Amino acid sequence: MPFKNLNGISDKTIDIHWGKLYQGYVKKWQEIQDKLEKIDLTEASTTFSEVRELKVEQSFAANAVLLHEAYFDVLGGGGKPEGRAVEAIARDYGSFENWQENFKALGMASRGWVVLAYDFNDGKLRNYIADAHNLYGIWGASPIVVLDMYEHAYFIDFGSDKKAYIETYFKNINWERIDKKYAKIAANY
Description:
The protein is mainly α. About 55% of the residues lie in helices and about 10% in strands. The two termini are about 30 Å apart.
């Protein structure tokens, strides 16, 4: 795994985060998919029905998988922020430093996720937060940089010091991978 042996984020945290939590979401997402194939659609109701509950939890589990994959995808490597993605960040935020300050502040404010996303609605990079996997997602936006702010991501190594975790996260970002992801996403706009 490229996100092992990180600077300041322990392998124990990664083993629990990736090996147990993320894998549990993958398993649950597949279980929901299997149940949806067999559901009795004639029982559908807005008050309560199995299909409604499964579809709500499908969005939670699917986004848990996707956000965790995006989070782990950019970890490992560090390096200097450079490339087309950094240029686009500077364009849309006035400077890379402005974006970074905004992203870090959102990390302090978020209960779940901070996401730098490419917004296909206007072709700009925007920072968003999500307090849960299936809350506040923006239709037509694709995650590029994702920061997990749930306690499981940092509590073993940092206790309640969210700020130290965020700083450490930035030391572990692989800007080359971010640049490749940005290029692939922006090419579709």
